[in-house]
Every structure is written in structure tokens, then in C-alpha cells.
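Record 1 of the preview.
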Amino acid sequence: MQPHAEPGGSPAADTPGLVRDLSSLDTGMLDLAGGKAANLGELMSAGLPVPDGFCLTTEAYRRATGAPASLLPGLAYVQAALKPEPGAGPVDPSALADLAAGARSAILAAPIPADIAAAVEQAYRGLGHDVPVAVRSSATAEDLPFASFAGQQDTYLNVVGVAPVLEAVRKCWASLWTDRATTYRAGLGIDPAGVALAVAVQRMVEAETAGVMFTANPLTGRRGHAVIDASPGLGEAVVSGAVNPDHYVVDALTGRVLERKPGDKKVVVRAVPGGGTRTLEAPDAAAGECLDDAQAAALARLGRQAEQYFGAPQDIEWAIDGSGTLWLTQSRPITTLYPVPQRAGAQGGTGTRVYLCFSLAQGLTRPITPMGRAAFRLIASSVAQAARFHVPDPRRDRPLRGGRPAAVLRPHHPAAEHRGPVDPSPRVRRHGGPLGRPVEAALRRARVLRDTQDAAGAAPPCCPRRRPARAPESLLRGMFRPAAALRRLDRFTRDFEAALEAPPAAGPAARLEHAEMLLRTRLFTIVPAILPLPALGFAMLAVAGKVLGGARWTNSSRCFAACPTT
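->
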């Protein structure tokens, strides 16, 4: 289905700077069309099934919001207040929310310029008479390989009529300044004055079933395994998390369904005649699955085509209409996968690298969540500051590799001879859980080196510049005055527990700030206050082992350590 156009050009032929057909877009037009619309254009170029439509470009947003400061004083003030400055600290979360609300209010109160409204009307009528459409935000800092902004700007479904489309466009513009999007940009150091928003308008799919698909498993990182969530009706129920959908894992190469887990699907979102949507309870929807094996395999094939076209795993939204036709309505890169190393080494070496996941040795099998990564950043900043390193913004750092703390080992080759091979302790490898022995065997088969390039930035070299942490004093006290050491530890424990309590009248923002304060200033104090004492105990056990000697002591000490009464 292609948009109806008058002879001689596209529906937007008279306003090429404001409106473009989706099929004419590509990722080279990011600044003009935003990430979402540009990706839709690429999907069309790849021959994949995408509903047709048009894009109101960022030129329209810039023209509408670039009025003199006297007309939009609120937006100009917000952009100046959020402009990143070298050495400046993070903006207070409550102040950030107030600034974002001011920007939204300014945009919603401003009129849409007449030429922009005319361009939208002409392009919309080119699709047909009062055609139901989806109006989707498409920001220039969105659906990027390093930052997805997924769900942070607004989408409006089943919009019918010129006036409702224009109102949806205005709301999409304002959604560039949601609290989530504003905070996310601030965390990435993106200048808000350089961000603009296009709007993609697509013909609505009358979806019988819809959902999302990841072309690589986001939990395991397994490439080639498509993960599909499906629910009856519009995909908004799945995207918003309002429904427990059917879950499928499909081998994208063979089309075989590897895993299926039916959901209850008690909620369904349906289009309303005349415009809008409504959410209905559907208690009988759980009786059957949304997809059969053929449909799941067909979706996985489409996802694989999109992944191969873009050259990276994709997060895709899809729909199936009443005739059984499959449609792709969005596609963006998955930004949280564990990275796959390049086959060629930095110095010309070849071979597979070995990733040792520290969190797996502690029983943490899943990737660390964004909240967990933020906590680790704050803790790491306190360590760096204790070592007298300058930390301009504790909320920013190099991300973990796919959400997992890892050391990277690669095959040893002569070009790196000066570094010498790594020889991790076999005892540590043997006690590394179920994967310890396979890892040990792999490392024995190939001499490996720590890949300092991949591990760069993982932790600051604190030892050369460490600040005295009174650890030697704690060790001496524990050795010669153990009772005093235990009393001191007890006082520290009571003070630390008291510090964990937020003020009784604290609101959500204050409680969050209190948690960040604990991670920044109090958590690392555990190291010099507590760890020297168990370290002393282990040292004494080692001394006893050396004095007594033999395997008999080693076995006895293991039994002692494992005894629940000790």
C-alpha cells in the first residue's frame, strides 16, 4: 500500500524541507528524520513489510520551537540551564524534573506555524480520507547504536482526522522533554539545544496480534535466537508492560521454536472506530496461544533479515493484521548485549578471546541492570576519590561489557611477548563454580594474555596513589587487642546501620539522593573498617598451615571452614 499522491509528485512535493515520504529516508538522514523514521526508511529499502506514511522532519520542530525567546522563554531557559559545562556536576533530579516540565508546557502552549500545519494536512490527506494513522516521535538522539531512548518519547495510535494528527504532532514535540528523556540525555552529556524531534506518521495496522521481537536473546546474549513476545490486539499492551504476553524463543536459522511460555493475556488494547484506543479485560484470551509455529518462524526470518541489513541485533515491534500479513512497525539496535569480539586482534593476532565474568563466579548469572550499573558507578567513584582521582561526574563512566563485569583474555602471540602470559590461580579456577573446570581447561590449551585494551577503564589503578586507610592500624589492633577491635567494629556497625535510614519525611527524590549519598560516601568505608579483621584471620590460618604442613592440615582447615558452628 503506497500513499496516494496527486500526479506530478509525492503528497509533500511542495514542502520537501518539512515532509518526506518514509520510503525516501535512510540512516544518513538522522539529523533530518530522527532515528526511528530513518530506520523505518531503511526497512522499506530492504524490502521488508512496513506500513507506508510520511515524516514531519526536524526542520518543522526547529522552526516551531526556534521562535524568538519572547515567544518561548521557558524553552530557551531550560536549554541554557541543561547545557553541559566542563567540570560541572550533575543536575539535581528534582530541578531536572521542573526544567523538563517547563519545556513541555512551553511547547504545548505555542501555536503550530501555518506552513507546517498545511504541510502535515497535505501529506495526511495524501494517504486517503481520514485514514487511521500511528503518530510516532523520532528524535535525533534516539534508536542509536549506543543509546536507544526506547519508550521515552510518545506515540499515539489510531489517530483519525487532520486536527487530531496536528495535536498528536504537538504532543510528540513536547515528549522530547519527558522527565525520562531529559534525565537520560543529561546522563549521557547530550546538549539539549542540539537535539530535535521528527514525527513519523504511518498508516495503522488493524492488528489481530502484535508485540516485540529481539533478534538476539537479551538475557543470555545468544545470537541467532529470536525472542518474541506476543499478545492479542495492538502492541501497546506488550510495550507498556500492561500484559503478561506469550513468550517464544525461536532458532532464526531453522525456524524451530525452542521455547514457548503462554501468558495470561488478560488485557487487550483495541482501536476505537473514529479514533483512539481502549484497554479491555480479556479473561478468555489465555485459552490459546497468539502465534503458531509458522508465524513465529516467519517473524524470526523477518527479524534476521533486518539484523543482517543493519549489521547488528535489532529490537523490533511488529503486528499481524486480520489477513495474516506480517508488518514491522519499528526497529532499533539492541544496546545492552554482551559484545562479540572481533576475530582480528588489536595487534594482528587471531583466535577467540576468553571472557571471564566476575559476577558469574558470585552466582550472578544475569546481566547487571541499569540501576545496578548506576550503583557500581557511584561505588567506583568513591574508590577513585579515596585514591585521590578526580571524578567530575560519578553518574557517568565507561559502561560494563553488556552489563557484566568481565576480564578479557586473548591468545598469546609474539607481538605481545613483552607482556608475558597470564597464569590465573588454578585453585581459583577450580572453585569458580560449574564453569571453573571448563575455563581452566580452555586456558591450559592456549597461552593467554590479559587484553589491557579491552579492560581499559574497568578500574582505576588505586594502589600507586592510595590514601592511607588505617588498615595497618586495624590489623595490629586485631592481632594484639582483639577485644578492642571487636568493640570498635560493633560501634562502626551500629553507626552504619543508623546511617541507612532516610529522614522520615523524605520524598522519593530525597530518598534517592540519600541512597546515592550512601553509595558515594559510606559504602567504601566498610573496606578499611571490617575487611582487615577477616583478612587477619585467613592470614593466621595460612600461618598455621605453614607451621603444621601437609595435606592433613589442608583437609582439616576446609572442614573447619565448612562447619556451620564455627
